[in-house]
């Protein structure tokens, strides 16, 4: 699997409710509100496209454009 180091890190919605932590070795941990680790799984980055597969088998995808992650109707910004 390709790992794009520029995308590794915490991605957060403007209100801070959804938080995607893209971890090294193509794993992610998603928090929602006060629920830490609401979803966990793997991801694969191909160019500017990301495919997610959580540990239950659910899949989703997104696109990185101009430093912003667009995923399932959400807009996430990389936390510094």
Automatic annotation (TrEMBL):
Species this protein is from: Dyadobacter endophyticus
Protein name: Protein Atu4866
Matches recorded under InterPro entries: Atu4866-like_sf, Uncharacterised_Atu4866
Top-rank taxon: Bacteria
């Amino acid at each position: 699997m390709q790992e794009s180091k520029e995308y590794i890190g915490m991605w957060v919605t403007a209100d801070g409710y959804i938080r995607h932590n893209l971890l090294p070795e193509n794993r992610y941990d998603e928090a929602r509100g006060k629920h830490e680790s609401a979803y966990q799984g793997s991801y694969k980055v191909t160019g500017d496209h990301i495919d997610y597969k959580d540990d239950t088998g659910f899949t989703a995808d997104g696109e990185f454009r101009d430093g912003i992650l667009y995923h399932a109707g959400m807009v996430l910004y990389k936390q510094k």
